């Protein structure tokens, strides 16, 4: 079966199109269709006079949750590109699935679509089928629905919906290359590898914060045990108080770059995800522009203007992607420095912990309570240092890979 006839799990009532076919549509700021290519018109089943001037929802299928369009709209109105799996419908009532890359223009928006076929698509399609029915049956408001969709991305291990869509775009481009029997694309491989490093880093950050929060209860336990083993104000009580005071300082530092709105980890994650998504957008636009020469002009549409718009958008994606990479590289360096600083501060806690172990050996800890508490400290300290080391290594991976990519693209 050649590339022109390849299909993935064709379903009854599904309109077919080939993997190599990319199609696009351009709208005004309100989402009214201004133009598109011949593939868009053919697959939709509408004639151009029916499409031009019509709202883009003319091809919307009710099985796509409304939350998808809310998140898309929120992103592009802020000037950010976004992706989404979308189930559309034709004039005759058939349906077709696309992965849509939606990008803002000076006076509207453009959506470039490709045929999805990855494992991620299969999972999302299954979720859509169940959730769109629930969305309608329970009359879920749009904000709650959008929050539910973002939660799905987070539960899947992604730091943000943008990161999830960057991952999905990389998966779809790789699956498309495989379906078309192409060699693996270097840019797509970087996209996938970087996204994997980003999500591993995010997971470590979450676990690090949880470990440190759990650590906060141990000084209280030490004081309780000390009250049974020594007079008030004894050495163990002093050690527990010193440990508490030092750990509070580290905890505040940790929260400043792991937790809360606008923290360093979150900024880096979002900037990396934006850079990765723009890398994918650039590749899609590059291919679309190469095929534009052979596209059939649309009557009443300035085809020269269309080509200039697409080529200009490709250049913008390249420029914006480089800027996002440079900013993400700086944030990765800052994250690495902060992690190293906290690791150094942990050495001070280690000294206090060792003093506690010494006192444990000196005192007659008859019921083993103090020894067990110190054992907990040993375990938490080892876990925290391991996670800090992992974050530093992943930050270096992100920084080095992006720096290498930037150097390569300059040459």
From TrEMBL:
InterPro entries: PAS (IPR000014), PAS-like_dom_sf (IPR035965), PAS_fold_3 (IPR013655)
Residue span, PAS fold-3 domain: 37-107
Protein name, entry field: PAS fold-3 domain-containing protein
Organism annotation: Rhodobacter xanthinilyticus
């Amino acid at each position: 079966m050649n590339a022109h006839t390849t299909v993935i799990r064709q379903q009854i009532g599904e309109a077919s199109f080939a993997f190599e076919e990319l199609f696009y549509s351009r709208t005004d700021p309100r989402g009214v269709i201004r133009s598109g290519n011949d593939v868009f018109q053919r697959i939709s089943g509408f004639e151009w006079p029916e499409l031009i001037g019509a709202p883009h929802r003319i091809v919307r299928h009710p099985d796509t949750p409304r939350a998808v369009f809310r998140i898309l709209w929120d992103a592009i109105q802020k000037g950010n590109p976004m992706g989404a799996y979308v189930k559309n419908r034709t004039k005759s009532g058939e349906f077709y699935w696309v992965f849509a890359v939606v990008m803002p223009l000076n006076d509207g928006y453009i959506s470039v679509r490709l045929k999805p076929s990855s494992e991620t698509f299969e999972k999302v399609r299954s979720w859509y089928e169940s959730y769109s029915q629930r969305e309608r049956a329970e009359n879920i408001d749009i904000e709650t629905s959008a929050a539910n969709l973002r939660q799905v991305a987070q539960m899947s291990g992604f730091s943000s919906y943008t990161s999830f869509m960057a991952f999905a775009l990389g998966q779809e481009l790789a699956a498309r290359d495989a379906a078309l029997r192409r060699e693996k694309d270097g840019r797509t491989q970087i996209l996938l590898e970087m996204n994997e490093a980003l999500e591993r880093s995010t997971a470590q950050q979450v676990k690090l914060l949880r470990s440190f929060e759990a650590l906060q209860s141990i000084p209280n336990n030490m004081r309780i045990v000390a009250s049974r083993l020594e007079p008030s104000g004894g050495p163990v009580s002093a050690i527990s108080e010193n440990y508490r005071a030092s750990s509070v300082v580290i905890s505040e530092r940790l929260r400043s770059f792991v937790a809360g709105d606008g923290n360093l980890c979150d900024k880096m994650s979002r900037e990396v995800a934006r850079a990765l998504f723009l890398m994918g957008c650039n590749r899609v636009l590059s291919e679309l522009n190469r095929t534009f020469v052979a596209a059939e002009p649309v009557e009443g549409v300035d085809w020269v203007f269309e080509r200039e718009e697409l080529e200009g958008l490709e250049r913008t994606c390249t420029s914006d992607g480089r800027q996002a990479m440079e900013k993400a590289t700086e944030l990765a360096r800052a994250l690495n420095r902060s992690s190293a600083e906290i690791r150094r501060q942990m050495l001070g806690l280690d000294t206090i912990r060792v003093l506690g172990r010494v006192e444990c050996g000196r005192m007659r800890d008859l019921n083993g309570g103090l020894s067990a508490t110190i054992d907990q400290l040993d375990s938490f300290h080892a876990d925290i240092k391991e996670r800090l080391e992992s974050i530093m290594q992943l930050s270096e991976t992100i920084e080095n890979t992006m720096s290498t990519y930037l150097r390569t693209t300059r040459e």
